[in-house]
Amino acid sequence: MNDTFEPTIVAFLCNWCTFTAADLAGTSRLSYPQNVKIVRMMCSGMVDPVYVLKAFLEGADGVYVGGCWPGDCHYINGNLKARRRAALLTEILKQFGIEEDRFWLRWVAASDGIMFQEHSKEMTEKLRALGPSPLSVDRTIA
Amino acid sequence: MTAYSKLSVTEGSLNESLAALFKSMLEKNVVDAVLVPAHQRPKGVMQTLITEPGGLVQIDPFAPVVPVSTATLVSKLTNVPSGRPLAVVMRSCEVRALLELVKLKQASVEDLVLIGIDCLGRYENADYMKLEQNGSTSKAFLEAARDGMGAKSADEPHVATACKICEYPVSDNVDIRLCVIGCEPNEVFIEWVSDKGEEARKALGIDVQEAPSGRKEAVEKIKKTRIAERDKVFADIHERVNSLEKLRDYLAGCVNCYNCRVACPVCYCKECVFVTDTFRHPGDRYVSWADKRGSLKMPTESLLYHLTRMTHMSTLCVGCGQCTSACPNNIELSQLFRAVAQKTQARFDYHPGRSLDEPQPLAVFYAEELVEVTGQVK
C-alpha cells in the first residue's frame, strides 16, 4: 500500500514569506513534491483552525502552515497568534488520532526557497511512511 | 480566615430563612435587586430578578436544577451595566463561566455582590420537574446529598454526570458563600468572603460566629470522590473516542440544532460561523461531496462543528454540563468536551474561572514561548 500511496498535503502559506519562498523555489527550478497543494494566505495568523479541520475532514493527509520567523511578521505578530492556535489544534487533533506529523507549522523566510523545498520533501516522506489519513478518500495524484 | 455567621433554619423553613436574608439586603439597600432561583407558575425553577421583598416568597436557591447557566443571564444583566448594585446567587460552575465572560468583556462584576452556593449537583430539567411535581423539596435533597452525590436510590434520577465529576463543590471568587457542606442538617452558614461581603455583613448587622467545624474535611471528601469519578470518565473518553471515526460515531445523533452552543455559557462568538452564509452551500456542492465518496450524510459538517467548538471554547470549558442537558438526542457532550478541555487547558496551564488576572490562552501570545510547535531555532 505504502509503495503507491501519495499523500495530499494542503499548505496554507503566508504571502510575505513562505509563499514567496515557494515561488522562489519554483523560479530557481528547485523541484518539490507535487503532493503539496498551496493555498496563499495573507498571514499565517489568518489561518483559522476551521480551515485546518476542514482540510483534514475533506481527506487531506497532512496540513502545513507556513509563516514568517518570529519578529519578521508583516503584521507584527500574526505568526505568534498562529503558533498559539497551532499548539491548541495539535492537542485536539492528537486526541482524535491525527498524529503530530500530519499537522505542521513552520517558519520559512522569503529568501529561503531551499527550506520550503526541504520541508515539502520531508513532510511528504513522513506521510508516505505514515500512510493515508483515516479520512482519506482512496485516490492517487493525477 | 474569613468570617462565618449561622443562618438558623427551623424545620421546613430553609427558603424562608434565606428569603429573610435577601429581604434584609433589599431593605438595608445593600443591593437594589437579587437574582435568585425561584419557583415559577405552573412549574419549574428559574433565576428571577427580584426587587420587591414580596417576590422572595417563591425563592428556592438550593433547588437542584439549572435550566440556564446563570453566567449567561448575568451577561445579559451586565453587558451594558445597570449601574445598580445587584446580588446574584450562583453555583461554582456559573461563577467560573462568568469570570471568563468578564475577561471577554461580555459581562462585568463591578456592580455585583456574588453569592456562591455550595453545589451538591443538579438534576436534568425534566427529572427535576417530575421530582418537583411529586413534592420533593430542596431541603430533603440537601439532607440526602450533603455527604455525597445526591442519588438516594437506584430507581430515582441521579444528578447530572457533569456534577458527579465536578471538583468544585464550593464557589471561589465570590463575595458571600452560602455553605451547607460540613454543616449540620437545618444549618446554613453564611461565609463573608471578600471585602464587599464583609461590608454587606456590617450593613446587615449580622454577628460573626464560629466556623462550622467539619466543613473543610467534608468539602475535601466530596472533592476527592468527584475527582476519582472524573478521572474515570476522562480515561474512558480518551480510550473510547481516540480517532475521528470514533468521534463521528460518538456524535452520531447530532442533528446540527446547535443547542449545545446556545446553552454553553462560554461559547463567546456573537454570531456563530455555522449559522452564516459560509455554511449555506449551493446544492451542487452537496452533490459533488456525495460524488467524492459515493454518499453523504445529511445534515453535513456535524463533526466540523463540534471540532470547531473545541478550538473555540475548550480552553474555557468550566464543565457545567449545559451542553449535555441541551442535547435533544442525549449525546454526552459534556464528558467529551471536558476530556478534551483537560488536555487543551493543561497545554496552557490554564484554569478557567480561577482568576480575573489570568489571561485566556487565545487572548495573549509571546515571542518567547511554544518553541516546540515549530521545533525551529534561528
TrEMBL record, chain A:
InterPro entries: MvhD/FlpD (IPR003813). The keyword Iron-sulfur applies. This is Hydrogenase iron-sulfur subunit. It holds the Pfam family FlpD. It comes from Candidatus Abyssobacteria bacterium SURF_17. Keywords: Iron, Iron-sulfur, Metal-binding, Oxidoreductase. It comes from the Bacteria. Residues 9-131 form the F420-non-reducing hydrogenase iron-sulfur subunit D domain. One of its GO terms (molecular function) is iron-sulfur cluster binding.
UniProtKB/TrEMBL annotation, chain B:
InterPro entries: 4Fe4S_Fe-S-bd (IPR017896), 4Fe4S_Fe_S_CS (IPR017900), Helical_ferredxn (IPR009051). GO terms for molecular function: iron-sulfur cluster binding; metal ion binding. Keywords: Iron, Iron-sulfur, Metal-binding. It comes from the Bacteria. Pfam families: Fer4_8 (PF13183). Residues 308-336 form the 4Fe-4S ferredoxin-type domain. Gene3D superfamilies: Alpha-helical ferredoxin. PANTHER family: ANAEROBIC SULFITE REDUCTASE SUBUNIT A. This is Formate dehydrogenase.
